[in-house]
Structures are given as structure tokens and as C-alpha cells.
User: What shape does this take?
Amino acid sequence: MGLKAARDFCQRFATGMHAGVDLLRMLDSEAKIGPPRQRLAITELRGEAAAGVTLADGMKKQPKFFPPLLRSMTHVGEATGTLERTLFKLAEYYDQQLTLRNNFQRAIAWPAIQFVIGVGVLSLVIWIMGIMNTGGRQMADILGMGLTGTSGVLKFWGILLLFFAFVTAAIVSFQKNVGGIQNAIPLLYKIPGIGSPLQTITLSRFTWTLSLALGTGLDPIRAIRLALDSTDSDFYRSGGDDAEAAIRGGSTLTEALQATAVFPEEFLTQVSVAELSGTDAESIAHVARDYDARAKMATRVIAGIATGAIWLMVAGFLIFFIIRIVMMIAGAYQDALTPI
Assistant: This one.
């Protein structure tokens, strides 16, 4: 279940509960919405509910479809009698995450278009060099890489495909923590320009989830584990046991987060100050709002860096072409002036 589907499901279900609609009727309605996979999952959930199984237990039987946060929060809401409020809060959380993602996609859309245009122009130049002749000879190789004509274009595209395949493999390997590569996250955060924005976006997701979990009455141990899991990073998940040990030892929320050794000092200080002014749920909610604003700014920063990188690349190509053409013209004049 994607972010948009999860948001809409929570919003509709919470609204239906507020209006007093019967549970099975709501599930019947939900089973008619969305792609086939979603309709099938809701139909199976409806069957479980008709047999007397709780929503949370029914969702747990389909872990590949219903996200962990939705399953856990539904369980808490049913256990505490606050399912309606919990689902409204979940809808707000998923909407925030969806907005953040959409803002980033919109921000990098133009740089991506610029890149595609640049590749198209370069491909056209390579193709033209292969089909045009001057004085009965093929045009000189402006690129100096032996890429001319249709075969040159295909080779150029092949190079690009290999590059993007490498980047994709690196991203997937990082997400799956192949070889424990996520242990290098602290080094990633030290990269000028993008390190701090990436960390801010991750902390925003963590604080939103933690605020939601604590606000619905979930105990701090499970709330912290859920929030760590929401980062989709084994680096952050590794701090779960340390946080649990700290909580069981009587530590405060700030001390528990500090025990994980995965959070920056600035973040811990902010949580500590907020914690002095209210309950855990209230303090984290305040921090979550602050990091939400920071994450939106971080998204714009990353998009700006992407735009700048693409502009530099396009400018580099243009400068390269100009230098090559000037060198070719200068070489031609030199040959013409050389005595026979």
C-alpha cells in the first residue's frame, strides 16, 4: 500500500467511524476502490472482520500489503478505544510524507527534463557527425571519443545505461544494507551540501512517527522502535535495543534516544528542551513540526543542488564542444599555412 492509498484509506475509514457507519459496510466500500491488489487485500480483510477478527490482526495476516506503522497504530487504536482518532492522525502523517515526496519530485522534474534534453542534443550531434560528409570525407570526430553516426549514438546510450544501472545498484544495495554499507551513513551526512539536508529529512520522518505513536498512547519502547523502523535504515534500527534498555532502566526519552548513538547532538538538545515543557507526546509533536518545516527546506536545497549539477554538466559539454571546435579550426588554418 503506497502513501496515497494509505492516506486515503485512513481518512475514509476514520470519517466513516465518526459518522457511525458499520465496519463491514466500510470494508465493502473500500473493497471497490483502488487497483486489483488493493481490492483483493481489503476483501480478505473484510472476510477476517466478518469472522470476528480485529482489524489489526487481519492486517497482520497481510504484512506485504499493509505497512508496519498502519498495523501497529491500528492495534493501539483498537486496544485503547481511540481507533477513529488514531486513523485521523495516521491520515495526517501519510499526507505529510506524501507532500514531502511530491514536493521533491516536482523540484527535480525540471532538472531531469534538462538532462534529457541535453542527452538528446548530444545524441543528435553524434548522429549528424556520422551522416554528413565534407569533401567526400566523414566529418571529424568533435567529441574525440570515436562516437559518430547511429552506432555512436547507441554506444553513447549504452554508456548512459551502464552508468544509471550502477547508480541504481548502489542505491538498492544501500537500501538493503548490503555488506553493512549503512554503517557509513555518518560519513554520508558529512558531505557538504547534501549531507545535512538528507539527515534532516530522515529526522523529520522519525519525529513524525514518534509523535504519532506516543500521541496514540503507545508505550515509549514500541514507539521508539516504530519510529526507528520508519527511517527505512538498519543504521537507525540498530539503536532499538539500546533505547529499550535505557527506558527500562528509568531513563527519560532524551536519554533513551541518546543511548542509541545515532542522533546528532543538536536534535537531542531540542528534544531535551521540549521535554521539559510537557509530556513526551507533546514535546515530540513540537519537534516534529519544526523538523517538518526543516525537511521542506532541505528538499528545496537538494533539488537546487541537482539543478546546479545538471547546469554545470550542460555547461561543461558546451565548453568542451567550443574548445574542440576552436582547436579543429586552428588546426585547419595551421595546415593551410604550412608550406608544401
